[in-house]
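Our preliminary data section would be incomplete without showing what the modeling component actually yields. Below, a chain of 501 amino acids is followed by its predicted structure, encoded as tokens that our downstream tools consume directly.
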Amino acid sequence: MTQDKLYDVFVIGGGINGCGIARDAVGRGYSVCLAEMNDLASGTSSWSSKLIHGGFRYLEYYEFRLVREALSEREVLLSNAPHIIWPLRFVLPHHKDMRPAWLLRLGLFLYDHIGTRKLLKGTTTVDLRTSPVGKPLKPLFAKGFEYSDCWVNDARLVVLNAVDAAERGADVRTRTEVVKAERKDGVWNITMADRSNGAEETVKARLIVNAGGPWVDKILTGVLGRSDVHNVRLVQGSHIVVPKLHDHDRAYIFQNGDGRIIFALPYEQDYTLIGTTDQDYDGDPKNVAITDGEIDYLCAAASEYFEKPVERASIVWTYSGVRPLFDDGASAAQEATREYVLRPDPSDGAPLINIFGGKITTYRKLAESMLELIEARLGRKSAPWTHRAALPGGDFPAEGFDDQVLALKADYPFLASQQAWRYVRQYGTRARLLLGDARAISDMGQDFGYGLYAREVDYLMAQEWAMEAEDVIWRRSKRGLRLEKDQVAALTTYMAANRAA
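Predicted structure:
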């Protein structure tokens, strides 16, 4: 980029909202630049519960518009990214000391019918005394309900939106921090700093989108020089990962005595993911970490239902994130609205539009709403397009995943079945771009362990902005759950040498 480069839209923030907006905007013919100060999806967007869901519990807070929009989005996203999104059935045991069975069934009836549902199965009643899904639970749970939502590889959803945006012409800059933005002669003058070497660069843009997530207010004060800014309520959500607690493919949703719910989700074939918590957070979002109280809470909540107690000693990994919810004055963190708010800056001159709140499930609709505001300010009109546009690697039918695995295995017979499955789960049809001309496992290069080879690392560095070992083992894949320290060290050395080259 040169100093006099003028973009139509400049997006600050490489989470799901920023990348979704960049993709939508460039697909409509706008020139776009996106700057992320760290790696893509390194904040809130990779610390979610990994669900594309309507938000069953939001019905209790009368968030009917949000739930309807999210329910309808499930199948749009499933159709556009069937490699990283797939249907998941949830078991909701009836707890006699909590919400009555009739109320749960009524809520699930609404859940089945207020949004568009064609691909996903509806709710059924389950006898937990005879069904395999009741086996891991305590005998006191006799009745339950089973309903549908979807699982998502959240960090890959972000990255694939960025990949598609870049391939359509957007400039995507990772590890690039916006340090200053000021209006001058009717446009924004934006100064960015490369965090790897400190080099600064100035570009211009007609409009800025502030998609900073938990840092949205900090961007307003630190980059734009505002004062007395308070728009978001930071809410900490933490999860624990334990060895898998059951052999079937269902997830569980458990009610708790405090009115909250937690999920117990199948995770990375060998684990169960349990979460989330909801508590207010006061501090720098980069420092968020699970507390002892949260660990105790999640272990106790899960142990209320599972026959085998979930104990602290069994935890293999934890993660925490900060959700930037729009501060609507709700008294409790779990009651704060999950609705997104798009707020144009009232100041004169080049436009600025801020994003407060939002959730992964509705990121695409948020982007469409943002484009309406952008077009009103830049004086153009165009049609929405992302509802029928597959994300990279997702150009196959939602029900065709197993066929993709078989086809990949046929084309690359040296792959173990589990390896072929993982490649399709992460890359879909683009697994062939990664594998290229490989004809034997020796063609895959250095083996870092658990199926992570140099050829995949090279692909991630060249095509998906991976720069550090953490980018590969936690956001582009979850190999970090399995790799030993010496294997991570070998990967770090390899990537450093490749960057230098």
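The mean pLDDT is 94. The chain is about 30% helix and 25% strand. Preliminary results of this kind motivate Aim 1 of the renewal.
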